[in-house]
Each structure stands twice: as structure tokens, then as C-alpha cells.
């Protein structure tokens, strides 16, 4: 399944020897070809690593057969000392480089291809899934590309732009009442699948979810850090697929790396020690008593997913970190302003956990933090609540500093 995809990856994961290098590095951006500064940047080689960066202008690789082939192989990007504590190196694994800008593109590809292979998904069948957004967008993309009708169930509180994106990709979106929480939208998807004979993705239960991260996300991180220190890997969880799959691979292949699992302080499900009761198919039978609504969309539903539980049972996590209220949004805003890295609230939460871990880690430590998606998906959420659409006083002052084309606020 993953092998066919890995075969078309551009060659930037291949080791081509080392050169002595300047202290700054330029990240490889497969789809962005900048002319500016390219002469100096083109030959930059990753410091301390045996891997070379692909030169700008070399191209992505041979033309692709379809968009799903661009899933995965996302870059690690160094975080500057404006955010990383002195003497510690933090790399962000930027999952917004996936075609629909989130880690969930991996999940959708794996579920659809696994179901096509085992025959549970046949041509013309409708695909249905319950999702807080990114999975729906990714599943809608895969269905559009493969020609399957797509129905997504989604609880009311999740951001409106996500619903619109799914509809743009041809999916039907069934919004479920807020009171029913995450379990409500999961139940609705199950009901619809049973009634209409549709294919249900089961993202919270299927082994295809974590296996794809074991085959792609984990190896990508280890390959890109080949020859370098790798002390901590930091992630949160939604389904737990990233944590279980990539975590298992990292544990097996980089045993010195500590795995840090974060969850919202307001929804301390794992921390509570209370397990989730399940139906026969592994789906949750009820809402978890430790759940409270929290601001980190895409993280920690109101139950412990089976995919997560299977990872926890293998003790993949070395440490747990609780994210305090407000920390995730603040860090996501700091990443945008200081690094030019536009990630969502969960990316902010993971980076906050990475920075806190780094502060207590020995000098010289190297950490990798997962950034699951793009900040653009959160325009109507608290992430952008403090960002004005109209000019503020400072901007007006700049506008008025020359005589022409001044748009004065109406009413003044
Ligand atoms: C925004 C966001 N962050 C993080 C995650 C976590 O990913 P996973 O489902 O692999 O645990 C998800 C997925 O639900 C997500 O949508």
C-alpha cells in the first residue's frame, strides 16, 4: 500500500554525502521554487546530516498520475531561538505540506487503499466518515480523485471553513448537534452506513490508520535525521494514529528517543486512568467522564480511540504533557509571527509541549514536534479572534503618512 506511494518520492531522502556548510540551513520546499537567493541557497546542505537538500530548480520528480501521490514526505523545519530554548534544537514536522494541508491526508489514503485492496470498498460505493474536519477534507479529496460519493458527519462546533472545503471537494456534510459531542457524530456515521450499506472509514478503530504512519511518518523522520541526535519526539492525538504508528517506528528504530504525548489539560482522558467502554466494533459505547470541551480542534475526542489505546498498551509514550488553556493558541500565533510557520491550534499545542520539554532537557538535545495542519483552516476560530480585518491605528498612521489613497474608517 505505502510502497507504491514511496516509489515516486523525490530523491531528497537519499543520502548523497556531506559537505562543510554554513550554519544556517534552507529547508527543501518541493513545490515552491524561489528565484530570490537561489544561487546561495541551492547548494546548501543540511548541517551535521549525511542528507543533502534537493536543489531548487531540480523539479519535483516525474509527473504524477494523480494528487494522492503527493501525500507524505513532509519536511522537518528548524525552529529559531526566538522560540526554541538556548542550546536545544527543535524541528517541526510540517504536515501542512500534504496536498490538502493536514496529516489526515495520510489516513484517508491508507484507509481507501486498504479497503480497495481487501474488497470492502467497491467501485461506486459511498464512503462515509465522522470527522472533526481534517479527515473529512482528506477523505473527500480521495473520494473525488477515485470517483466515490462521499458523506461526512461533523459536530456543530467545528470550524465552518472545514465544512465548506468538504463541500467544495464534492462531499455531502451532515452536521450533528453540539450536545451529542464527538460520539454523536460517530454514531450518526454508523447509523447511515448500516442503513444505506455505505463504506464506513472507522478512522478511530482501523489498523490501516496507525500502520500508514508506521510505514511513512516514522521512517521519514528517522531518515531525515540520519546521522543526527534525536532525543524527543512530541505529538498529540486525535485518533492516535500518528502517535501509535510513527511512535512505534521511532521506538523500534531510534530506541534512545523519548516519546512525549500531549493532551489538553481540560480533557485529561489518559491522565484520568479511566478506560473507554467499547461496542463490539471497538467504537466508544459512551462519552468519557474526564472529557471537557477544549480549544484544540482535532485533538482528544470525548473517548479514548481504539487506535490510541492499542498504542498506549504498548507503552510507546515515555512522558505525558498537559496543555494549559490558552497555550496552544498563543504558541500557534508565535510560530506565525516569529517563524513564518502557519499552523493550527494543535500545532501550537504540540510546539508548546516541545518547548516545555526542551527547557528541562539536557543542553544539546534535539526534538521533533508534529505540526498537524495549516493555520488557514482556523479563520473563524479563537486562533484568529484577535486578528482584525480592518486597519488599526498603527496601520492608519502609515496610510496617512503619504498624501494619496487613504481609506479613512467610515463614520470618521
Ligand atoms: C488538527 C489535528 N491535529 C492533530 C490530529 C491528530 O492526529 P491523529 O488522528 O493521527 O492522532 C488531528 C487528527 O484528528 C487533527 O485534525
pLDDT averaged residue by residue: 88
Strand content: 5-15%
Q: Count of DSSP helices?
A: 14
**Annotated CATH topology of the largest domain:** Rossmann fold
Order of strands, main sheet, comes to: 1-2-10-7-8-9
Bound molecules: pyridoxal-5'-phosphate
Number of domains: 2
Return Rg in Å: 22 Å
**Quaternary structure of the protein:** single chain
Word description of this protein:
- Helix 7 (207-215) packs across helix 9.
- The chain has 14 helices and ten strands.
- The protein is globular and about 65 Å long.
- Helices cover 34% and strands 12% of the residues.
- The strands form two sheets. A six-stranded mixed sheet has the order 1-2-10-7-8-9.
- The longest helix is centred in the middle third of the chain and has 16 residues, at 181-196.
- By secondary structure, the chain is α/β, with parallel strands linked by helices.
- Helix 4 (134-146) links the parallel strand 3 and strand 4.
- It has two domains: 29-98 and 211-384, Rossmann fold (3-Layer(aba) Sandwich), CATH 3.40.50.1100; 104-207, Rossmann fold.
- The chain has helices spanning 2-6, 38-42, 104-118, 134-146, 160-168, 181-196, 207-215, 217-224, 241-253, 269-272, 306-313, 327-339, 345-359, 393-400, and strands at residues 76-78, 89-94, 127-130, 150-155, 172-176, 199-200, 232-235, 258-264, 319-323, 366-371.
- 47% of the residues are buried.
- Residues 103-104, 132, 134, 236-243, 297-299, 344, 346, 372-373 line the site of pyridoxal-5'-phosphate.
Amino acid at each position: 500500500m505505502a510502497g507504491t506511494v514511496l516509489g515516486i518520492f523525490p530523491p531528497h531522502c537519499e543520502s548523497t554525502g556531506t559537505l562543510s556548510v554554513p550554519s544556517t540551513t534552507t529547508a527543501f520546499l518541493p513545490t515552491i521554487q524561489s528565484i530570490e537567493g537561489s544561487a546561495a541557497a541551492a547548494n546548501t546542505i543540511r548541517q551535521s546530516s549525511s542528507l543533502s537538500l534537493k536543489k531548487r530548480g531540480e523539479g519535483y520528480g516525474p509527473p504524477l498520475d494523480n494528487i494522492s501521490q503527493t501525500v507524505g514526505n513532509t519536511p522537518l523545519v528548524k525552529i529559531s531561538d526566538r522560540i526554541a530554548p538556548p542550546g536545544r534544537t527543535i524541528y517541526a514536522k510540517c504536515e501542512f505540506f500534504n496536498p490538502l494541508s493536514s496529516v489526515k491526508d495520510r489516513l484517508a489514503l491508507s484507509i481507501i487503499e486498504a479497503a480497495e485492496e481487501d474488497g470492502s470498498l467497491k467501485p461506486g460505493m459511498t464512503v462515509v466518515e465522522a470527522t472533526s474536519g481534517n479527515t473529512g477534507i482528506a477523505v473527500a479529496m480521495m473520494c473525488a480523485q477515485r470517483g466515490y460519493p462521499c458523506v461526512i458527519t461533523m459536530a456543530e462546533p467545528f470550524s465552518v471553513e472545514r465544512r465548506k472545503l468538504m463541500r467544495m471537494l464534492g462531499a455531502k456534510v451532515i452536521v450533528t448537534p453540539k450536545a451529542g459531542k464527538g460520539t454523536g457524530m460517530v454514531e450518526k456515521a454508523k447509523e447511515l452506513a448500516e442503513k444505506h450499506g455505505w463504506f464506513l472509514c472507522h478512522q478511530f478503530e482501523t489498523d490501516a490508520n496507525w500502520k500508514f504512519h508506521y510505514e511513512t511518518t516514522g521512517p521519514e523522520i528517522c531518515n531525515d535525521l540520519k546521522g543526527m541526535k534525536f532525543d524527543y519526539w512530541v505529538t498529540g492525538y486525535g485518533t492516535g494514529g500518528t502517535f501509535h504508528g510513527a511512535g512505534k517506528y521511532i521506538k523500534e528504530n531510534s530506541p534512545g528517543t523519548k516519546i512525549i504525548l500531549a493532551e489538553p489539560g481540560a480533557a485529561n482522558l489518559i491522565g484520568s486512568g479511566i478506560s473507554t467502554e467499547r461496542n463490539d466494533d471497538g467504537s466508544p459505547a459512551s462519552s468519557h467522564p474526564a472529557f471537557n470541551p477544549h480549544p484544540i480542534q482535532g485533538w482528544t475526542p470525548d473517548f479514548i480511540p481504539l487506535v490510541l489505546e492499542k498504542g498506549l498498551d504498548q507503552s510507546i509514550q515515555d512522558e505525558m504533557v498537559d496543555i494549559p488553556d490558552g497555550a496552544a493558541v498563543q504558541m500557534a500565533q508565535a510560530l506565525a509571527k516569529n517563524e513564518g510557520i502557519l499552523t493550527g491550534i494543535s500545532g501550537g499545542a504540540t510546539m508548546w509541549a516541545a518547548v516545555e520539554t526542551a527547557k528541562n532537557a539536557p543542553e544539546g538535545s534535539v526534538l521533533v514536534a508534529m505540526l498537524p495542519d495549516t493555520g488557514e483552516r482556523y479563520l473563524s476560530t479563537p486562533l484568529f479572534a484577535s486578528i482584525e480585518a480592518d486597519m488599526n491605528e498603527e496601520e492608519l498612521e502609515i496610510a496617512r503618512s503619504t498624501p494619496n489613497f487613504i481609506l479613512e474608517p467610515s463614520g470618521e
